[in-house]
Amino acid sequence: MIPKRFRPAAIAALTVALASGSMLAYSATAVPGPRDADRATADTFARMADDVLSHRTQALVEDQPGRQGSGQAGPKTRMSAQLKKDEDAALQSLRSRKTRLAELGEAYTDAATRVVVDRATVTGGKAVVQVTEQTTLTYKKLRGDEPATTDIGTRYQLTLTSKRGGNWELTSITSQENGPVAVNEPVAAKVNVVKDDGNQYPDGTPASTKYPATPKPKAKTGGAYDYAAMAKYAEKYWSNYNPAYRKYNGSGGDCTNFISQALKAGGWKAVPGSTSDYRNWWYDGSRQSDSWVGVNEWAWFTLSNQRAANLANVYQADVGDILQVDFNRDGSKDHSMMVTYRSSAGMPYLTYHSTNTYRKSLASIIASYPNATYYAYRT
């Protein structure tokens, strides 16, 4: 749910030649209304999306002898002139991100991207396509105990136009997620700035992003809370959502709903009361408190009830701890994530919803959003 105080909205030569009869490349007057694309057309759209997104991912993979590196030519899918320009800029941005990550001691040795079409409709000579990208990046073992991979699930919408000869031209590809960008996505998250309502809230203290930081380890089990259980829950349901809970991907984002579930799995107890009082925290079959799903409300509940305290540095976060981000530094927190792994070198790895992500390093978050404000909570 969107917080009340602030409301953030939180491939050039090869052309895919298609037969007009089997690929629905109709003229603008041939079809009166939208219709589902046939299987062959949908498969073509999937290949086009896979081409573009795979090139984005490969821009992050380190160059290796005997293999075409990230400086390779761009996607071969036919694109509009503006989209081709935008995609060239995107690839350059991602290569710069790879350099920033290398400076932070992170690199990827391999990647795999798979695209599935969720829905494709054609209206005349236009097509609108919803796809889901699943990408796995393999961490290079620079320090030895990095996770094996980081995994991402992102929903995109594509628009295409049919051209002479039954060919399709891609005109746009837009993420449908409102959380932080995937590591292979170049565009920063967009948020709407809304005027402060003037009230005072327990907002907490921003954390330093200087690396490394003095460690503050904690026992993962045996105490009041089971942090290993929190991480296990998050890593079980990062992509396949728990059907026992409602999801809020189309209603402001599912990130805080997800961390609340994981915290409950690790022993956090409900605090009953009205839905709107941020000092309460609960979920039932039909309703939940605002603090269960709202980014800011969760922070207010957590700090006011002393469920957690702010850490001085984000790199002190350990398994089961929570990181929140204010992307545009307007005073309103926009996203919540849980640490589900921490390396011996002091690098936390985050798992979260919206965009669905498994073990993304904190370094890659900060490389994407170096100017954001970060909050770290010792749960």
SSE topology sketch:
Layout: H1 20-23, E1 35-36, H2 39-58, H3 81-103, E2 108-123, E3 126-139, E4 149-163, E5 167-175, H4 227-237, H5 255-265, H6 290-293, H7 295-304, E6 309-310, E7 322-326, E8 335-342, E9 348-352, E10 356-361, H8 362-368, E11 373-378
Antiparallel strand pairs: 1-2, 2-3, 3-4, 4-5, 4-10, 6-11, 7-8, 7-11, 8-9, 9-10
Helix pairs in contact: 2-3, 4-5
Structural summary, described in words:
A hairpin with a 3-residue loop joins β9 (348-352) and β10. Strands 1, 2, 3, 4, 5, 6, 7, 8, 9, 10 and 11 form an eleven-stranded antiparallel beta sheet that branches. With 379 residues, the protein is of the alpha+beta class. Helices cover 24% and strands 23% of the residues. It is built from eight helices and eleven strands. The longest helix is centred in the first third of the chain and has 23 residues, at 81-103. The protein has helices spanning 20-23, 39-58, 81-103, 227-237, 255-265, 290-293, 295-304, 362-368, and strands spanning 35-36, 108-123, 126-139, 149-163, 167-175, 309-310, 322-326, 335-342, 348-352, 356-361, 373-378. α2 crosses α3 (81-103) and α4 crosses α5 (255-265).
Mean pLDDT: 87
Write the element-wise H/E pattern from the N-terminal end onward: HEHHEEEEHHHHEEEEEHE
Into which percentage range does the β-strand content fall? 15-25%
**Main β-sheet description:** 11 strands, antiparallel
Give the termini separation. 22 Å
Distinct helical segment count: 8
Which secondary-structure class do the elements indicate?
A: alpha+beta
Helical percentage: 10-25%
**Which geometry do the CA atoms define?**
globular
| Beta-strand segment tally | 11
Give Rg in angstroms.
22 Å
Q: Detail the poorly predicted runs.
A: 1-31
